Amino acid sequence: MHPELEHKIFCPSDMKILSWPSAFRKVNPLFVVFWLLLAWATPAAQMKLKSLDACGCSFRNVTVLSFDRTHVCFTHEGGITSLKLRYLEPTLQKRFDYDPLVAAEVEREQADNDARYQASILSNMVAQAQQAALAARRAAATSENSLADPVSNHSLIGKPAPAIKGEKWLGEKPALEGKVVVVAFWAPWSIPCRKYIPELDALQKKFAGELAVVGVTSESEAEVAAMAEPKVEFSSMVDAEAEFGATVGVTSVPYVMLMDRNGVVRYQGHPTAITEKQVASLLAKAED
Length: 288
What we know:
This protein is 35% helix and 25% strand. By secondary structure, it is an alpha+beta fold. The chain has 2 domains: 6-105, no CATH class; 168-287, Glutaredoxin. Strands 7-10-9-8-11-12 form a 6-stranded mixed sheet, covered by helices on one side. Strands 3-4-5-6 form a 4-stranded antiparallel sheet. A two-stranded antiparallel sheet has the order 1-2. Strand 1 and strand 2 form a beta hairpin. The longest helix is centred in the middle third of the chain and has 42 residues, at 100-141. The radius of gyration is 40 Å and the shape is rod-shaped.
């Protein structure tokens, strides 16, 4: 028996399993049908042999269906087989115009093509797995109750909020422990900021005792005092060097950061998203 590894091939003629060397190709049923049809259609082109010996196996009543630079396909008493030409006797190899150098090159190209195909399949599988993992992470990061979702590691959403600190409190320092907190970054010269101050005042009144609105500005106390309207009814702090704002990532005003009762950031961005409905939902969820 040929020293290469063996594999099983099914022989329909006697319903037995024979152990043949790896010199023989596994034959696909469609491949069998194709070559049988070809054999019936072109009988004159067929080569018939009483026997063919290769790799320790003997095939009887052989009819050659086709051959190429590396293989020969034939029928025999046991069924149909595709065999590498390099395992045939030299006299038969000559009848099939076998050139070992050409055959080796063809097999090398086929091996390279197979390797590229397998690598392509593996690459696609890895890409699909990565895409599925990314989709799962995104699905876990969002919900119907989310006001906004992070798109980078620089976002504070879902993380503990940095400590609220600045140069000076304008009035009494508020008690924040156990409350939902809206930190509002604003400037007295900013028209959009002044437009949102009444809404922030309203939230402070609506959810008194459960919600704390904290204003943060980098302008001076004198500039804040010089702003006649609207009246700021929530606690405010001067962050003259904008250090706290830089920690949060503020690049424009008005800008708010919403924290839950545990001090975890649930939203940061424009204050439009902070409505009575959203605050009530967050408070109800905290109570549950």
